[in-house]
Design brief:
- The chain has nine helices and no strands.
- The chain is mostly helical and about 260 residues long.
- Helix 1 (about 5-15) packs antiparallel against helix 2, helix 6 (about 105-155) packs antiparallel against helix 7 and helix 7 (about 160-190) packs antiparallel against helix 9 (about 225-250).
- It starts with a helix and ends in a 7-residue tail after the last helix.
- The relative contact order is 0.10.
Length: about 260
């Protein structure tokens, strides 16, 4: 899934036109990335440069905007928080007390409605922390892959080539681990699954998002295993080619 903040950070990592850097740094800040070190790493500049660019865009970096909705805070709809099926019974009893004129069909419809609320809220509250972990792992994966490219670029001007090459090799290894960590974070959410029925989905969209104002859940990648494998293979192919090139740079006496 691509979010506004991630799109802004991706654009920042590839800035090139003069004058665009400050604009893109400001855009990433406005999109929610208020970690100066992350902005500096993405833009390939120093932290003081990030501070200067933010101020040139009219942003005071010492006053960070408050974070959005906490993806780990549980929500409830009509008193149902999804922690116990007893919620459904209590909800139905409340309906019966409020509507003594009810018919059998009314009770059946109210029961189905209560159950749909319970299932949707239960799934939402269970998915939120899982998907929050997944999103954090995805950002860490993207940062790690970006660092590989940065470390490789630094080799061309490195005063201490061997040390810089070692930093590149370490970055590749950390990127592999970050890809695997992201894949592993997707699995629990995928096992939990998305909303199962139209009634649950309606509760999610109309009650949880629209009425309660809760944050929308990130999508669960349907093919995380294949995506992770493809990313690992691409990383390894690129690293193998770069390793071959690096051998031509190493002094003859240091080659294995």
């Amino acid at each position: 899934m691509s979010t506004t903040r991630d799109d802004a950070m991706a654009a920042l990592r590839t800035w090139s036109a003069p004058g665009r850097r400050a604009e893109l740094i400001a855009a990433a800040w406005d999109a929610g990335e208020t970690t100066v070190s992350a902005l500096a790493e993405a833009a390939r500049v120093s932290r003081p440069t990030v501070y200067a660019d933010l101020r040139s865009a009219g942003i005071d970096p010492d006053h960070r905007p408050k974070k959005g909705n906490n993806l780990t805070t549980a929500i409830a709809v009509e008193g149902i928080d999804g922690t116990s099926p007893e919620d459904v019974r209590q909800h139905l009893l409340a309906f019966e007390r409020q509507h003594p004129e009810r018919t059998g069909d009314d009770v059946a419809a109210a029961s189905a409605r209560s159950y749909s609320i319970y299932c949707a809220v239960h799934r939402y509250n269970r998915l939120r922390p899982l998907l929050d972990d997944m999103e954090q792992a995805r950002r860490a994966r993207d940062r790690a892959l970006h660092l590989v490219e940065k470390r490789w670029e630094e080799l061309s001007t490195a005063a201490h080539w061997m040390a810089a090459h070692h930093a590149y090799v370490v970055a590749v290894d950390e990127a592999r681990a970050a890809i695997d960590a992201w894949r592993d974070r997707v699995r629990p959410a995928a096992e939990m699954g998305w909303f199962q029925t139209d009634a649950e989905l309606d509760v999610y969209e109309q009650r949880i998002l629209a009425e309660e104002g809760a944050p929308a859940l990130p999508e669960i990648p349907p093919d995380a295993e294949d995506t992770a494998q493809a990313m690992r293979e691409k990383l390894d192919r690129t690293h193998e080619r770069r390793t071959s090139l690096a051998r031509e740079t190493l002094p003859a006496g240091s080659q294995a």
